[in-house]
Amino acid sequence: MTLLDVRDLAVEFRTMDGTVHAVDGISFTIDKGEILGVVGESGSGKSVSVMSMLGLVPQPPGRIVGGSVLFEGTDLVRASKRRMRQIRGEQIGMIFQDPMTALNPVMRVGKQIAEAITIHHRRTSAAAASARAVDLLRLVGVPQPEARATQYPHQFSGGMRQRAVIAMAIANNPTLLIADEPTTALDVTIQAQVLDMLRPAQAETGAATIFITHDLGVVAELARRVIVMYAGRIMESGTVRTIFTRPRHPYTARLLKSLPSLKHDSQTLTPIPGNPPNLLRPIVGCPFQPRCNIGRDRELCSTTRPPLAEVAPGHDSACHYPAELDDAGA
Fold it and tell me: Which CATH homologous superfamily contains domain 2-223?
């Protein structure tokens, strides 16, 4: 059953240099209990998409200029500020990229988690909320949770702070959990620990999860389905297995070829040539066309926007010539 239905979402930012078309008409759905990965380079529109859905993009300079976001019957784009405050933290939990900015530095960690509960459940006593906060810290793997709950964020390591943020996000058993690159600021060992801990956290709530990352390896480990974004558009979507074994968009294929491989004894990575487009200028055709071996010299690719269309059951690609993309990439 569909939990979230995003249709033609478009987000712009007004700047002194002009209007940045950060998200350019994206559409996708997520079912109840599903884990969806969203990948792409920095600036591809991944985080802006979800931040705008939750009303967290500063207005101005940002604004939603089109589309709808239906969440359990409520259009988040048109919902009042009061309604959005009710939804955020209770029905939708958010795990931010930088836990230090997500936590109040002068409030004890346990009190912050307890406050996230009592704001939405005013009949819950302070003692019950505090006990729940300790239980949540224990669930996400914080050692000595009773003692840790009385400490301040600066007394936690980076990995522990991220665990506390996850505990806060799942405190009210949300139906949708959004994780915005939650392991980016952590070293590799701590990343693995946080990812291992996300599974029981998601299982505790049964929440659908949108996992935003630039790391394809993380997506392969956690998600069932993946969306690939570039220049504010969705280039490809499908199951993780399909995307990794048979990509049908040149951008996805290039991303996969740029990853190091344990199967080949090569120390040279294959970068994607060129640069992403300037989002201050409207993109007429395919945004990847100047960097694409298939579409670089084709007029159709430079003049006509390719629709996100089905190329196989459950597999969509925004490419005019997906059949020409062999498994080796483009």
Answer: P-loop containing nucleotide triphosphate hydrolases (3.40.50.300)
